Amino acid sequence: MSSLSEKDRPIVQLLLSTGTCPRCILRFCCVGSQMLYRHPHKDLMKDLQEFLRNSQEKEDTVCLDVADPPCKRIRLEHGEEGADDLNHNGAIPSAGDGNSATESSAVKVCNVCLGILQEFCEADFVKKVCQKVNSADYQFTSFVFSVSLPPQLSVREHAAWLGVKQQMRNLGLALAKDDIVQLKEAYKWIIHPQLSEELGVPADGKSLFEVSVVFAHPETDEECHFLATACPDCFKPAKNKQSVFTRMAVIKALEKIKEEDFLKHFPCPPSSPKNLCDALEIQCNNGAVFVAGRYNKYSRNLPQTPWIIDGERKLESSVEELISEHLMAEFKADSFNFSSSGREDVDVRTLGNGRPFAIELVNPRRIRFTAEEMRRLQQAINDSSDKIQVRDLQLVTREAIGRMKEGEEEKTKTYSALIWTDKAIQREDIAFLDDIKELKLDQKTPLRVLHRRPLAMRCRLIHTMKSEYIDEHHFRLHLKTQAGTYIKEFVHGDFGRTKPNIGSLLNRTADILELDVESVDVDWPPTLAD
Fold this sequence. Notes:
- By secondary structure, the chain is of the alpha+beta class.
- It has helices spanning 9-17, 22-28, 34-37, 41-65, 70-79, 83-89, 101-104, 123-135, 152-170, 183-199, 226-230, 247-256, 259-265, 319-331, 371-384, 401-410, 427-430, 487-492, 502-506; strands at residues 144-148, 209-216, 278-286, 289-297, 308-309, 312-313, 335-340, 349-362, 388-396, 412-421, 439-444, 457-471, 474-482, 498-499, 510-520.
- The longest helix is centred in the N-terminal third of the chain and has 25 residues, at 41-65.
- Its main location: cytoplasm.
- Belongs to the pseudouridine synthase Pus10 family.
């Protein structure tokens, strides 16, 4: 085995004799050749045995050339001690000894990786993973593979490393833990080409399609529990975690615990388990897809999002649901997140070019749509209801959505309000409103939203107003305002919480009967040709 040198012999001897699999031995010998790990398990075992035999023969040759007989006598004495003592002392068992560590380790579960670099690298397991992927019916052009390992693997690897380190130290050599090839890395070296060939697409670390495997080993679950007593600061309950014994917490504790304290609680080398790991879950997940557009809302009895108070639904539908139900069905997503450039009240219409919105579709099975397919999807949404219409429906990136959110506070919005006054008015009574420019408002959080927004004083601008007389008690007011201005409160004053207001400017009681959003001046998403 050309990747191994004489300095690796004591590592190979020690680990083979204690029940470590060939691939883990390569990891501890710091072998970085990916191709070598892909060799069949049996071939690797034979290669390691051959490596040790060759090393032994060289040693024998050296000993025969030396005129000091004790060297040979010591070996002969060892030969009479039996396989167990030989294994313990690192010598090579005879080829015919069926109880030898080198032969038994080919069938035993590895005492370090718990079988992950054994059974779970084989073609049968790869096919099982690919069957799961194919049955999930995802669209993807590449994949990224992730693996979740039981935390006790870190404990076993630490124990094995301490044993190897001691062996190397006795020979005047050093082995840093960081030099050992990580288990996950070695596993991916082996599994990536097989998955890629079976799925017909390349492995790509930047792919949005993830195939993940979660391993568990119930037999050894409690092996890391002693660390909680030795390093209690490393194990703190977290909201999203079922157990405090996470992989990161265990690694942190292993970095902190003293060697002598570790060895008091855990065998070195680690014992061989009876059972392989279990592949608890094989999961697929596609990165989110983002769809944007603009919507018009023509109903005065439709909330933007589901209207639920104290667990009770108030209205049967919403803008969000009327749009998303079609997208969810076509993209075959698990869930969605709706966002928009501001929002209108349930009784407010949104006219003009509409309000920009974006929908994040979580874990979609289908991700590729042509421009024509998006046009048909838009038409399906529009045909399904007379309460809303969408336009400019398109696929966008996550980063592009930031432009919509910037517009919420920075851009302007145009409204049309139907206003009632208690005292009669004439045209000349409201004409002066047309001359007011950049009117500064102080608006306390409105009473109607105080239950869901913090109390604050907000300064807002009314850029322009244009009045349209209707009759003695009604007029329409067209306003261009800073985004975030509460228009209803600007009309009636909200019991003095918005100053000035239309009531105070006209010196009479005023109230708003209807409100329409005529434009949301956010230049996003891009306008599409019909």
